[in-house]
Design brief:
Elements: E1 3-7, H1 17-25, E2 31-35, H2 50-58, E3 64-67, H3 77-106, H4 119-130, H5 135-142, H6 146-152, E4 174-179, H7 180-187, H8 193-200, E5 203-207, E6 210-217, H9 219-227
Parallel strand pairs: 1-2, 1-3
Antiparallel strand pairs: 4-6, 5-6
Domain Resolvase/invertase-type recombinase catalytic: 3-110
Protein name: Resolvase/invertase-type recombinase catalytic domain-containing protein
InterPro entries: Resolv_N, Resolvase-like_N_sf
């Protein structure tokens, strides 16, 4: 059984670096890659794309096809919403990992040394965050970890609070940027009071023709909201 990987970018100015990173994180071994020529349009039906046809001809029963994001294969409102939910889930997993490290630090443990934001750049980082730049984007911009960015903007975070070293570390809020399509879907659902409050208190950040909703809540609330996105993946609920 083979692991088949499909890659595509929409313009020749783009690269597959992000796709490679996502696939590397998935730990796929002994993969066989099928990469479309740069600029292969998403408007083409997958069966009209040379490399995808080649993948189908190569595939055998039992093989697994891996695609970093659904929109690499097909476009459409439903697919984009599903892809957005998947991205939200990956972000939540990353943030929960950081949340665990932060809780451990509150108890005196350290999760390893993280690169810091230089003093010369701290003011720029803080200003960009207040203007709506996400922590993940700032980390990429400055080549540091998300934890380093959080340290630089710690007093600006919605979850900023003093921690009593003599008490157990509480379940700390996590701030995530929720894709607008996911937020719209959730607003049409019947939510628990805590979930509804998290959405109502979210901060809208405009991005081009769309938006994201910056939501701060404890992990349990985020997980509950994510569970309500299951119908987007063909589930029921």
């Amino acid at each position: 059984m083979a692991n088949l990987v499909y890659k595509r970018v929409s313009t020749d100015q783009q690269s597959t670096a992000r796709q490679n990173l996502v696939l590397d994180e998935a730990g796929i071994e002994d993969l066989v890659a099928f990469e479309e020529a740069p600029g292969t349009s998403s408007r083409l039906h997958p069966l009209q794309r040379p490399k995808f046809r080649e993948l189908l001809n190569y595939a055998r029963p039992g093989d697994t096809v891996h695609i970093s994001e659904m929109f690499r294969l097909v476009r459409g409102t439903g697919v984009q919403t599903l892809a957005a939910a998947g991205e939200l889930q990956r972000d939540l997993q990353r943030e929960l990992t950081y949340d665990g490290l932060r809780a451990a630090e509150a108890k005196g443990s350290k999760g390893g040394r993280r690169p810091a934001v230089s003093a010369a750049k701290t003011a720029d980082v803080r200003a960009a965050y207040l203007e709506g730049r996400t922590i993940a984007a700032l980390a990429r911009d400055h080549g540091v970890s998300r934890g380093a960015i959080r340290t630089a903007v710690a007093d600006l975070l919605p979850d900023h609070a003093a921690i009593n070293e003599d008490s157990p570390a509480p379940e700390l809020p996590v701030t995530l940027d929720m894709p607008g399509k996911v937020a719209d879907f959730l607003r049409a659902r019947e939510l628990d009071p805590a979930e509804q409050e998290a959405l109502d208190q979210g901060v809208t950040v405009r991005r081009g023709q769309g938006y994201t909703l910056r939501v701060s809540a404890v992990p349990a609330v985020h997980l509950g909201l994510l569970a309500r996105c299951q119908p987007l993946d063909g589930g029921h609920g």
